[in-house]
Amino acid sequence: MKHQNNMKYSNGLFLKIISLSVFLLVINIQSQTVLKINAPFTVIGIVNLAVEKPFGKNISLQAEGFISPWKSFHGKNLQIYMGTLEGRYYFNEIMKKWYVGTYGSIAAFDLQKWNYLTKQPVLDDVGNSQYLDDGSIRTAEMYQRGVAFVFGISGGYHFTVSENLGLDVFAGIGSVQSFYKGYIKENNERYDKAKNWNKSGEIIPTRAGLMITYILP
Q1: Residue 171: its pLDDT value, please?
Q2: Could you tell me which residues are beta bridge partners of residue 37?
Q3: 104, 150 in Cβ contact below 8 A?
Q4: Structure pTM?
Q5: Residue 135: φ, ψ to 5°
Q6: Could you please report the per-residue DSSP string of 166-192?
Q7: How far is CA 154 from CA 65, 69, 104, 148, 210, in A?
Q8: 122: helix, coil or strand?
Q9: Is the backbone of residue 74 left (phi > 0), alpha (psi -120 to 50) or beta?
Q10: Which pLDDT score is estimated for 108?
Q11: Residue 155 burial (CB < 10 Å; 0-12/13-18/19+)?
Q12: In sequence order, what are the residues at sequence separation of 6 or more whose Cβ sits closer than 8 angstroms to the Cβ of residue 183?
């Protein structure tokens, strides 16, 4: 029952984040500007859309939505629903050549963190490894479900293909502050010993891609 309540909470949060991202995108579309789609992610069924709005010759604001719907991707949990706002400064002019930026994101996730992609030892209540009847250590795949807040810096280069089409190559690194609960995949029981939420903070790459851009006439 507790696991089902957690699922309902996460799904509700996912929908709120998606709604916020869509709202921000609609605002920008009505104000005109540049539509974008991250081509490499589209190939593997992940949706990453953005709208960028200029404010003057060198400064812009981008609203972005990222949806990875995979409950299982090659056997690994990979559900991510994220909204991002990014401010950019172009050294030349908007949508031309080099730029730097700063961004903030909020995400809801149900995934296997990078250091949990292989089976991990299952611990007992006092932190010791559990053993199977044959004397071997019990191991299992584990996943994490929760929310994350990201703040970082980015950079990229915009290539002009034609009057309206272009390519935006970008990457970013940021501080990720996560609040999550950890579960064992085989029975959905918690592997962590926290009463409520685990907390973690790390500085890692959080953005990268190649976006096809279209400047609205």
Answers
A1: 96
A2: 49, 212
A3: yes
A4: 0.75
A5: 90, -5
A6: EEEEEEEEEEEEEEEEEEETTT--B-S
A7: 16, 25, 11, 18, 14
A8: coil
A9: left
A10: 93
A11: middle
A12: 3, 142, 143, 144, 145, 189, 190, 191
- For the stretch 138-187, pLDDT in tens is 887 888 899 999 999 999 999 999 988 999 999 999 999 999 988 888 88
Digit-coded pLDDT (tens) for 5-18: 544 545 555 555 55
Query: Where on the phi/psi map is residue 33: left (φ > 0), alpha (ψ -120 to 50), or beta?
Result: left
CB atoms within 10 A of CB 6: 17
Name the band, by pLDDT with cuts 50, 70 and 90, for residue 21.
low
Q: What is the model's pLDDT at position 103?
A: 95
Alpha-carbon separation of residue 80 from 16, 116, 217 (angstroms): 13, 16, 33
Which tops the pLDDT comparison, 36 or 131?
A: 36
Chain position carrying tokens 């990720």: 176
